[in-house]
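@channel sequence for tomorrow's demo:
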Amino acid sequence: MTELPGTDETRPTRRAFTLASLGAAALVTTSACAESERDTGGEGGGEGGGGATRDTFVFGGSSDPDSLDPVFASDGETFRVTRQIFEGLVSAAPGTTELAPSLATDWTTSEDGLSYTFTLQQGVTFSNGKPFDANAVVANFERWYNLRGLAQGEDLAYYYRSIFRGFKTNDDPALSTSLYAGSTANPDGTVTVNLTTPFAGFLASLTLPAFAMQDTEAVEAGGGNGADGADPRQSAYATGGVVGTGPFVFDSWQRGQQVTLKRNDGYWGEKAKVATAIVQFIGDGTARRQALQNGDIDGYDLVAPADVKTLQDGGFQIQNRPAFNILYLGINQAFPPLNDLKVRQAIAHAIDKEAVVRNALPEGTEVATQFMPSNVIGWNEGVTTYEYDPDTARRLLAEAGQANLTIPFNYPTDVSRPYMPDPATIYNAINSQLNAVGITTTPVAEQWSPNYLGTVQGGTEHGIHLLGWTGDYNDPDNFIGVFFGARTNEWGFEDQGLFQALAAARTATSEEAQEQAYQDLNEQVMTLLPGVPIASPVPSLAFAPGVQGYTASPVQDEVWNTVTVSAES
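structure tokens (generated this afternoon):
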């Protein structure tokens, strides 16, 4: 997966994010792979007025998708593609984290929080012409629930495991009783989904692209359930046979080059304004910028902070994605003396977060006070904080007998994340502040892939480290529940009281109870101080001047049916 502190008046129920403003503009043309498909359409069609528009939108992604079946994915590059093909029962309203109708027009919750009944859109069909109805919803829930073997693995069914916690038959002893207790297609056309225990974040979790509705008959026919132990991500279905209800349909996938999508002319909602959408894979951030400047792509994500002004000065549009993330300094308590609270407090007091934001993070970044955004229910305005105070840091270190503390400091290389656009610059900013209070660090720079996460989340020898999180959906369990719901090697502490309180908060049946529970938990976490929340950086996207109708989402829930590209770009 956080910051944007505001008053209670500006933080409504289910804390809405407002749309980020669009910056200035300029450029677009053609890609070697896509040039023949970037035909000029008719007049009009864009927010910018009545000029001619292109029939193709080309977006620069950083890598191939993992597969095209979203239930077996957990990465943004996969979901960037699958969000165009599939839809869920509910979605996030454009530019916000607020719940909005999608394939369900309305829903009700039972008083005990164990049943959800959804009213469905009428007249919706899958792209192969089969009807989407209550039976199709039941078939999807039953498909997930009945996955077996390899398909249950954490690296495949990550989100199903995270939300539902178990399957009908668990092949992994780490799994528990499933949250899912069955579903029913009702005679009136509605569908009811039952849970084994209340989960306050259930509706919000259904906005995850992993829980999009698919034609389960097509899944089965294409080997998409991983029968006979095969990897379902490599099935005929997941590599080219996917069937959803979204505004685009799959056309082709040239590995290492691009995925091409075509407009779904039978789409039930607002039909796509471009006939073709292409995601072209460009791994290097500088190369993505150059591709935009050269007219090879129409837009790209994760613009390096140093490139923003250059692009704006060149006439390109910059659109900031509303921040829904947290950058933190993790502290491993299994590495003495980091298990001493005074040492952790000293580290917190040594860090000038304002200076880190000013010198190492994009303009608009907000300083963090806790491990969740202010727009999420349970954010605690009065949480314990640790102000920048080098003298207090030195005093605490002396009291702990650690006036000459030396610890390893891990940070990643060869990566840019929404919460950590330039890890080395952030490391240098924090490291100099720690050094200033007498903390000597041993730098441990490691490539993000394949080593870094294995070191700081799987190993036990790391000391402090840089990491972060971009929220998947608007619920507090998706932040502090993810971080601190159980003992992990990343944090290295055992606090059953905290673990149990987080589990209990997950089952709150009213928003008021959830609010109070998570406010208390945020205070408990910041008193324990397992790490130091630093900031919520603002990720930027860049577009050619002729691109209109693209609305950046804090959870990257960006569907391209409203996008147009002017022919003059």
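heads up for whoever presents: The chain has 16 helices and 23 strands.
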